[in-house]
Design goal:
Layout lengths: L6 E2 L4 E3 L10 H28 L6 H30 L3 E3 H34 L1 H7 L2 H27 L3 E2 L2 E2 L7 H4 L8 H34 L4 H9 L2 H22 L6 H26 L1 H28 L1
Parallel strand pairs: 2-5
Antiparallel strand pairs: 1-4, 2-3
């Protein structure tokens, strides 16, 4: 008697899912998704470019902003191939190794974004609460060291999680809830005892993102206390206005992230389509909104971007004029 086994080792494949139950509308759904990806790629690339090229933006505040844009850019590129592959070509199948690599980079860049937001909160704390020490503490070298420590920290914490998943056995051809590989989604289909990987994933989430969020909240408590001690209302408003963009970026990142984590780990009856929508909001909303927020609310970034667009426009007019004169 031939027995078919639907289990396999770590060489199994997974099936990605974009929006369960809306497969016939994938082509139409792909239009706004493509627009969002385009905004994220162009917006973050432009912010990176203006910070690199404009010498007046070579300050710690803008260095941290460039780190945030770089992370958002990498996070967008990490999910772009599989999301559009599912929506456009119904390319749902993904090998275990490819899924593991995507999972690693997705979570590393996600945790990196959280850590960069902490660094930006520290920058605002130093600028408002200790302005006299700001230039001596946050030097270019210190900013570089903070960036390197952040990167090393995330990679060190993610490697054990990846190794634990790599040594697990999974059911063959299981449907994931998203068009990308997300750790809590993957370990639901393991054959072996997944408590180690699940515990480590929860520990990383609580330790890294939890401590990051607490540090940000504590920083703003100190900032608010300092601002309230300022007598002049205009100075109070000016101090708080420098924090508006960062507060928006923190809200845009943490609210979808916490909602998605709770939906996966504590609410098993959550509809799959809701999990899919939350996951896409979590990964697309920060890269799309962060460039818009900072370009609209930060005067120097806005001016630099307008100058860049004007210079490109004048260059294009000059090229057209030369072509006409040659004709």
């Amino acid at each position: 008697m031939l027995i078919f086994n639907n289990t396999t080792s770590s060489s199994s494949n997974f099936l990605l899912t974009a929006f369960p139950g809306l497969e016939l509308a994938h082509v139409w759904i792909s239009i706004p998704v493509c627009c969002l990806y385009t905004i994220a790629l162009l917006g973050n690339s432009m912010i990176l470019f203006v910070i690199i090229t404009e010498r007046r933006l070579h300050k710690p505040m803008y260095y941290f902003l460039s780190m945030l844009s770089a992370v958002d850019l990498c996070l967008t590129i990490t999910t772009l191939p599989t999301v559009l592959g599912v929506l456009w070509f119904h390319a749902r199948e993904i090998s275990f190794k490819a899924c593991l690599i995507q999972m690693f980079f997705l979570h590393v860049f996600s945790f990196l974004e959280s850590s960069v937001l902490v660094a930006m909160a520290f920058d605002r704390f130093m600028a408002i609460c200790n302005p006299l020490e700001y230039a001596t503490v946050l030097t270019d070298m210190m900013t570089l060291v903070i960036g390197l420590v952040i990167c090393i920290r995330e990679v060190i914490f993610m490697f054990p999680c990846v190794l634990a998943v790599k040594n697990m056995s999974f059911h063959e051809g299981q449907e994931l809830s998203h068009p990308f590989c997300y750790h809590p989604d993957m370990i639901k289909y393991t054959l072996s005892n997944n408590w180690i990987s699940s515990f480590w994933g929860m520990f990383i989430l609580l330790y890294l993102n939890g401590t990051d969020l607490l540090f940000i909240l504590f920083s703003y408590v100190l900032i608010l206390r300092t601002v309230l001690s300022i007598v002049a209302p205009k100075k109070q408003q000016k101090a708080l206005s420098t924090c508006v963009c960062h507060i928006c970026a923190v809200t845009v990142f943490y609210v979808p992230m916490i909602s998605l984590s709770l939906a996966h780990r504590f609410f098993s009856s959550t509809p799959r389509v809701l999990c899919s929508v939350l996951a896409n909001i979590y990964l697309l909303l920060p890269p799309v909104l962060n460039p818009i927020i900072y370009s609209l609310k930060t005067k120097m970034i806005r001016q630099a971007m307008l100058q860049l667009l004007q210079s490109k426009g004048s260059w294009g007019l000059n090229v057209r004029g030369l072509r006409r004169s040659m004709d």
